[in-house]
Amino acid sequence: MSLIKWTQFFDDFDDIDKNFNNLSPMLRGGDSFIPAVDMYEDKDSVIIETQLAGIDPDKVEISIENDTLCVRGLSEKKSEVDEKNYYRKEIRRGSFYRSIALPTHVLGDQAKAVAEDGVLKITIPKAPETKSKTIKIETKHGS
To answer: How far apart are the C-alpha atoms of 98 and 11, rounded to whole Å?
Structure first.
């Protein structure tokens, strides 16, 4: 009997996210979608960008807790005609939610968000690095 080498099904959690995002809306829970994001950093901040074209920024909620960013909202269909004979229906409508673990400690209460040209840009300042402290061990000699 020969051994079969184990291989990891997903390279990392991003692959799980991508595959989950590709599931049909029926499996994900109805009219919902997961917006794609770009995350990068500069010297002082972590920056997250997501395309939310056609979504009212007032219908988007952003929160940061325990170095995790959550973006949720609603994309409403603005149409007077409900019944159409669609050949394709690919524009995503409905609620959306995305939770992203941030790569470093951040100052969530100082985050800023700007919506411009259909792109939501969230800038979160990094928390100052905590410096390690060297502790000197005291020795006591018995009398």
So the answer is: 20
CA distances from 101 to 26, 54, 96 (A): 26, 26, 17
pLDDT per position as a tens digit, 93-140: 788 889 999 999 999 999 999 999 989 999 999 998 755 678 888 888
Distance of alpha carbon 81 from alpha carbon 63, whole angstroms: 35
CA distance 18 to 68: 18
Residue that has been written with the tokens 């400690």 in this structure? 105
Say how far apart CA 118 and CA 54 lie, in whole Å: 7
Quick one: tokens of 33?
Answer: 């979608």
How far is Cα 27 from Cα 29, in angstroms, rounded to an integer?
6
Q: What phi, psi does 26 have (nearest 5°)?
A: -60, -45
Tens digits of residue pLDDT in 5-27: 666 555 565 566 556 555 544 44
CATH class for the region spanning 31-78+91-125: mainly beta
* The one-letter amino acid at 34: I
User: CA-CA distance, 101 to 70, in Å (whole number)?
Assistant: 9
